[in-house]
Amino acid sequence: MPPGIQEIVMPQTTLGGAVSCRGVSLHSGHEVSMEFRPAPEHSGIVFHIHSGDGVHLLSPRPDAVSTTELATTISDGTVSVSTIEHVLAALNGLAVDNVEVHVFGGEAPILDGSARPVVEALRSVGFRTQNAPRRMARVMRGYALEKDGRSIAVEPFDGFRVDYTIRFPHPVIGEQHFVLDITPETFERDIAPARTFGFLKEVEYLHSRGLARGGSLENVIVVGDEGILNREGLRFPDEFVRHKMLDFIGDMAMLGHPVLGAFTVSCSGHGHNNAFLRNLVQGEGLLEYVER
């Protein structure tokens, strides 16, 4: 760094107040709710799971992920909380460091299938800077994980960039590609509104097994043989790949710190995202934790 030039240190942030979201859960179809509350410096994102025997605390981390079927679930072996990737994506995308997420019902509400309602709720109470610098996880060298046609590669980069490609053998989707430097502004505008999606046959099969009871045209883009079944259509022509990027941003928040790196992702999902993140954390010399 040139003499006399100091690196800008970004402060940690929390919320300006408490705010709630309520809606149906994806898995059970029951009414559930969550409340976001401010938290002190260095506390990170902590889920407070309210159940009949009290309140249990769970912090997102790669080895806390217990299942990735349909959505991301974390557990400590006693309690669990499901469908948290959109919540984590909103917090990660908006650069919120410290927050309590109180969950009532064992699962975050699916809302409209995107992160936009969470972003709007968080924006409504604003953000407060805190008296401690952000602690970042900086990628120090390249690493890649490829398996069964899914791949993630990362290179050092002074920011958070995601280059994502999906391929589906359906004419409505096909191959889609999107690349973005993630900032609070770009996340809110280009990623947060993108909704989860599924194919009609898959949705019918899941319902027949008693799964995804809360999934409907109100919160899922449903792709039938002839096209999109949702009356309002798509929010973006490439909404499918944007939602996959949203999920990826949420799954990377499992690291517990904002990440500095350029990611190239192809056809990944929650399971592969988590396997990649576990390897990234465990790999010698892959990450360096810095204050900035």
User: Approximately how much helix is present in the residues?
Assistant: 10-25%
Strand content: 35-45%
How would you state the average pLDDT, rounded? 93
What is the string of SSEs from the N terminus onward?
EEEEEEEEHEHEEEEEEHEHEHEHE
Number of strands: 19
Query: Spans of 5+ residues with little confidence (pLDDT < 50)?
Result: 1-6
The biggest beta sheet reads: 7 strands, mixed
Radius of gyration: 19 Å
Please identify the structural class as seen in this structure.
alpha+beta
- How many distinct helices? 6
Q: Give the termini distance in whole angstroms.
A: 14 Å
Task: Name the overall outline.
Answer: globular
Write the layout of secondary structure elements.
Layout: E1 11-15, E2 19-24, E3 31-38, E4 45-51, E5 54-58, E6 65-67, E7 73-75, E8 80-82, H1 85-93, E9 99-104, H2 116-125, E10 127-133, E11 135-139, E12 143-147, E13 150-155, E14 160-168, E15 174-181, H3 184-191, E16 197-199, H4 200-208, E17 221-223, H5 239-252, E18 259-266, H6 270-282, E19 287-291
Parallel strand pairs: 4-9, 11-18, 14-18, 16-17
Antiparallel strand pairs: 1-10, 2-3, 3-9, 4-5, 6-7, 7-8, 11-19, 12-13, 13-18, 14-15
Helix pairs in contact: 1-5, 5-6
